[in-house]
Design goal:
This protein has helices at about 15, 45-50, 50-70, 120-130, 150-165, and strands at about 80-85, 95-100, 100-105, 105-110, 130-135, 140-150, 180-185. By secondary structure, the protein is α+β, with helices and mostly antiparallel strands. It has a 7-stranded antiparallel beta sheet, sandwiched between helices. About 30% of the residues are buried. Helix content is about 30%, strand content about 20%.
Length: about 190
C-alpha cells in the first residue's frame, strides 16, 4: 500500500482565524455542501460539452488545478471540490487528481466523467484496484475508502450529480460508456 505524502502546510492559529471557519470544522463531514456549478442549460454546462473544451480541458485543467492546490495549500482549487490521492493501479505510486465532486447527506461522491472521453479516467481504475485513498478538501486532509456505486444507488447519485453540476447532464450523449460513480467514506 502506498504511503501518502503529508499535507504541505498546517495552518497556524492566526491563519485559521481569518478563514471561513473561525473555529474550524470538527471534521470534513461538518463542512458545508460543495457549491453547485450551475444547471444543465447554463453557460458552463454548454461550454464543457463543446468539442474544443473536451479536447483542451484534459490537458490544461489538471496541471492548473495541481499548481493552484500547491500555492493555496489545498484551500482553493477552482472547479474542483477536492483533491484525490489514490494509489496507481499499475505503479503503486501516489496519484494526485483534482476532481469536481459533490457532498450530500455527509458523503462525498466522485463522478468519473473524464471530460466525456471514450475511456474511463485512470483514477477510477486506481480506486477499483485499491479503494483506500486520501482526500484534501479546503485544506483539510482525510483518509477515505471509495465504493463503486451501482443500480439504484448509482442512479440516485447521478441525479444528485446533475443537480450539482449541470454540465454532466450533456456528457452521456457524447460517449457510450457509463460513468463510474464512487461514494467516499471518510475516516474522521
Amino acid at each position: 500500500m502506498a504511503t501518502f505524502p503529508a499535507a504541505e502546510v498546517t495552518p497556524d492559529p492566526e491563519t485559521k482565524a481569518r478563514t471561513r471557519y473561525p473555529s474550524g470544522p470538527s471534521s470534513l463531514q461538518d463542512m458545508p455542501r460543495s457549491l453547485p456549478r450551475g444547471g444543465p442549460n447554463g453557460p458552463i454546462a454548454r461550454m464543457v460539452a463543446t468539442q474544443w473544451f473536451r479536447a483542451i480541458g484534459p490537458k490544461i485543467l489538471p496541471p492548473l488545478h495541481r499548481f493552484i492546490r500547491r500555492v493555496t495549500a489545498g484551500k482553493f482549487v477552482p472547479g474542483a471540490a477536492l483533491v484525490l490521492f489514490s494509489t496507481g493501479a499499475r505503479t503503486g505510486l501516489v496519484r494526485e487528481t483534482p476532481l469536481e465532486s459533490f457532498n450530500k447527506d455527509g458523503s462525498w461522491f466522485l463522478v468519473g466523467s473524464n471530460f466525456a472521453q471514450h475511456h474511463h479516467p485512470a483514477w477510477t481504475t486506481n480506486l477499483l484496484v485499491n479503494p483506500h485513498c486520501e482526500v484534501l478538501i479546503r485544506g483539510r486532509r482525510s483518509k477515505a475508502t471509495a465504493t463503486l456505486l451501482s443500480g439504484t444507488d448509482r442512479q440516485a447519485a447521478w441525479e444528485s450529480a446533475i443537480e450539482h453540476f449541470g454540465g454532466w447532464s450533456n456528457y452521456p450523449s457524447l460517449t457510450d460508456r457509463e460513468f463510474r460513480i464512487f461514494e467516499l467514506t471518510l475516516a474522521d
